[in-house]
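hiii, so i know i said id send this last week but things got crazy w the move. better late than never?? heres the sequnce for the chain we talked about at the cafe, plus the structure i predicted for it. fair warning i was half asleep when i ran it
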Amino acid sequence: MLPSNLSRRNCLQLMSAGSAVLLNARRLSAQQNKPNPAFASVDDIPGLPRVLLIGDSISIGYTLDVRDILQGEANVHRPPTNCGPTEKGLQELDAWLGSKSWDVIHFNWGLHDLKYVDGKSGLVDVGQGKRTNTLAGYGNNLEALVVRLKKTGATLIWTATTPIPKGSKGRIPGDEVQYNVAAKDIMKKHGVAIDDLYTYSDMYVRALQREANVHYMPEGSRLLAEQVVKAIRSAL
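okay and structure toks below
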């Protein structure tokens, strides 16, 4: 027996609603799979200096703003990835540097070295995992990275690791201060300039950091970018 007209109408409405849900799901999936624009390759403008940004998701957050501000002044590149802990840097740095020369390299490792992870390197609560790198291990790795970076002949700028807010999963507020002290000693030893994003953020950008999260709202990333640009311009 065929359904009534009302039943047909209900079926059509349900089918339409189901199609809308499926379409929205596909759109969301497409957005999630869309490449991060910060990872886009940059075509160099001849005659402009080449700048390389190396860092974790904090640097990913300010990459596009740095490019925007330095448009027409410098070709700003970054590896198409989160540069993670120092081990990842040691493994992939040569590939990130490529075969072309660099005028300025602005770099950081830290937040991924001091975080607590499980056996699969997944971020976990402090009491449920172990730290990626001890302070000593971090220092040894970072010094090896600086030695390799100096071979490029570029002007190097180390940027201090940004603050860890209370409640951040897998990280202990204050650890970044200790890791920054160790890093600064290495930079002084090797004559590397320091862009103190930790102090800058603590003074001017903390209100734009996400709650219980090391990351920043877009406005915060823009302010960080402005400070990064100052450091780069001074080096250029």
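btw Residues 17-23 have pLDDT under 50 and may be disordered. thought thatd interest u
miss u guys!!
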